[in-house]
Amino acid sequence: MLKFNKPNVPKIVKPKSKNKSILLGSIIIGFIAAVGIYTAVMSFIRPVDVVVAVRDIDNLKKITEADVAIKKISARSVHPKAYHDLKNVIGTYPKMPITAGEQILSTKLVNNPDKVVDAFEALQPDEMILELQEGKNIAFPKLLKKGDYVTFYSVEDDGTKEYGKGSKFISSSGPNIVHNFNNLSAGKDPTEGKIVVICTREEGKKILSATQKAKMIYVTPEHPENLIITPGKNTAAPKY
């Protein structure tokens, strides 16, 4: 009788259940990580509705529907104090001039213009009150006194530029420590200090424009004797 030998067939080794669990766990962890990264990126770049000025708006001029519009801006570029609904802006009054394309911030509007009329009565025709929020790119000394003269130094990509020489300091406020502690405890952003100055309209617009592109803006005190007075030009501190 002929005998046939069985062919050498390699044995298939089945993975152990432990290896299966490790593989499955790795897949799940990788999927969760990918979803987390995607969610974080999308929340950073997703478009957000923001109220912006469609044209220049003078200070204390009542804002109408023709002055503002909703614009979609990436979340990373939205100011934390920007308005997102037109009904919160229409009918209010800006405390300072607002330029076309600028986001409308809650710190720049008032419902009752009488609150700022007294300050504006001291202004010259070519002057404005400028209020800036202290933040990631604006810093000013806390020891400034009312009546001090200041200059704005803007650190930009093409070098340091000087704006608002001889601007008159009106007031400033620092962040409320207790309020900020409560905000941080509740997961909210801390409040910031602000500075209010009087400057020429031309320089004010330059300063506002610089806040949108400057890496850092420093507000430095200016001694009155160092101010340059040129006849016919408003380079000195305003007279009051």
TrEMBL record:
<feature type="domain" description="SAF">
    <location>
        <begin position="48"/>
        <end position="110"/>
    </location>
</feature>
<protein>
    <recommendedName>
        <fullName>SAF domain-containing protein</fullName>
    </recommendedName>
</protein>
<keyword id="KW-1133">Transmembrane helix</keyword>
<keyword id="KW-0812">Transmembrane</keyword>
<dbReference type="Pfam" id="PF08666">
    <property type="entry name" value="SAF"/>
</dbReference>
<keyword id="KW-0472">Membrane</keyword>
<feature type="transmembrane region" description="Helical">
    <location>
        <begin position="21"/>
        <end position="45"/>
    </location>
</feature>
<dbReference type="InterPro" id="IPR013974">
    <property type="entry name" value="SAF"/>
</dbReference>
